Amino acid sequence: MCSPDVMKLVHGQEGHQCGGHVAADAEAGASATAQGTPSPRRAPAPLIRGSRVSDLTHTFGNDFPVLEPIVLKPNIDHFAHIADEGFNANKLEIDEHTGTHVDGPAHLVDGPIYTDEIPIDRLIAPLCVIRIGERVAKDHDATLTADDILAYESRYGRIPDGALVVMDSGWCERINTPGAYINRDADGVPHFPGLGFDAAELLVRERSIVAAGTDTPSLDASKNLQIEDPGAHRIVLGDMRYGVENIANLDTVPDFGATVLVGLIKHRKGFAGPCRVFGIY
Predict the structure, then answer these.
(1) CB neighbours of 19 closer than 8 A, spacing ≥ 6?
(2) What gap in Å lies between CA 123 and CA 154, rounded to an integer?
(3) How many Å is the Cα radius of gyration of the chain?
(4) Model confidence over 156-190: pLDDT tens digits?
(5) I want to staple 89 with a disulfide (CB 3.0 to 4.6 A). Which of 80, 116, 138, 189 is the partner?
(6) 212 three-state secondary structure
(7) Please, are residues 279 and 127 in contact by the beta-carbon 8 Å criterion?
(8) Per the record, a Pfam family (predicted)?
(9) b/e for 80-93, b at 16 or more Cβ within 10 A?
(10) Contact in structure between 223 and 199 (CB atoms under 8 Å)
C-alpha cells in the first residue's frame, strides 16, 4: 500500500493506492458515471519528468575494488549450471558495503533507523552534483568544502529541501585500472577524496538534505579514515539521512535539475546495502 506522501511525490497529487490513478481520480470518475457521462481515465501529472535516464551504478564482481580490511571482498559463486542442475544460479556473499551502496543511518550507531526502515519517499530526491575534479586531479586527498557548496548555490540557487547532494571528483574513471581506485601509496596508505567536515555540517545543519554521496569508496576522504575519524559519516548519517558511495557516471547527468532514484536492497535490520541508482532528467 502506498502512502499519500509517496503518491503525491510520484504522481503530483495525493492518493491511497498504487496503480494507474489515485483515489481522487477514481472518485471523480465514479461521480461522472453516476451522472451518465463517461469519464476517461485522467493521467496523473508526474513529478519526475525527463526523457533521459542515466545509470549511476557500478557493476560489481569478485574483482571490484574494496577498502580492505574494513570491507570484505565480494564472492559470487556460479553454483548451479544448466548442464548439471537444469538451471543457472549464483550464490552471493557480499559485504553490505559492496559496489554502489547506501550507508544507512544506523551504520555508526546501534539501533534504528535501519536501511529497510528508510521511508521510500526519501529514496526519490532532487539530485545536486557538485564537481571538484580539477582540484582532485592535483590533490588526491582533496575534499568537498563549504565554499564549493556556496559557489554551487550562487550559480543554481539554494539546494532544494529533500535533495541528495553528490560530490563528483572524477574518481569513477579509475574503477577499471587495477589499484587506481583505492590508490594506495608505497606504504599501503590509500588516497582518495571525500566530503569535508565543513561541507557536511553545512548540508546537515543549514540545509534540509535527505542524503549525501560521493563517487569514491567513502563519504570521508581516506585521510580521515587513517586517523579513525570518519567525521563526514558521523555528521551526515542519522535522523533518517543516509549516504551513497561509489556512485558512477556522474558526468552523464546535469549539475542541477535531475531526479535521483535509489533502488536500495531491502534486507531486515540493514546497516548498509548495495543499490541501483538512476538519474532522470
Answers:
(1) none
(2) 26
(3) 21
(4) 999 999 999 999 999 999 999 999 999 999 999 99
(5) 80
(6) strand
(7) yes
(8) Cyclase
(9) eeeeeeeeeeeeee
(10) no
- Residue for cell digits 530526491? 125
Find out whether 130 and 124 touch, Cβ atoms under 8 Å: no
Q: Model pTM?
A: 0.82
CA dist 259 → 51, 73, 84, 115, 127 (Å): 12, 31, 45, 21, 5
**Structural domains of the chain in order of their starting residue, each with its CATH number:** 1-47 (no CATH), 53-280 (3.50.30.50)
Q: Which residue has the cell 551504520?
A: 107
* pLDDT value of residue 43: 41
Task: Kindly give, in sequence order, each residue whose CB lies less than 8 Å from that of residue 177, ignoring residues fewer than 6 positions away.
Answer: none
Cell numbers representing residue 54 in the block: 542515466
Rounded to whole angstroms, the Cα distance separating 204 from 85 reads 52
Across 8-100, the runs of DSSP E, i.e. the strands, are 53-55, 75-80, 89-93
Give me the residue label for grid cell 539530485.
127
CA torsion angle for 184, 251, 214, 159 (degrees, to 10)?
Answer: 150
| pLDDT tens digit sequence for 200-226 | 999 999 999 999 999 999 999 999 987
Phi/psi at 62 (5° precision): -65, -20
- Assigned C-alpha cell, 249: 557516471
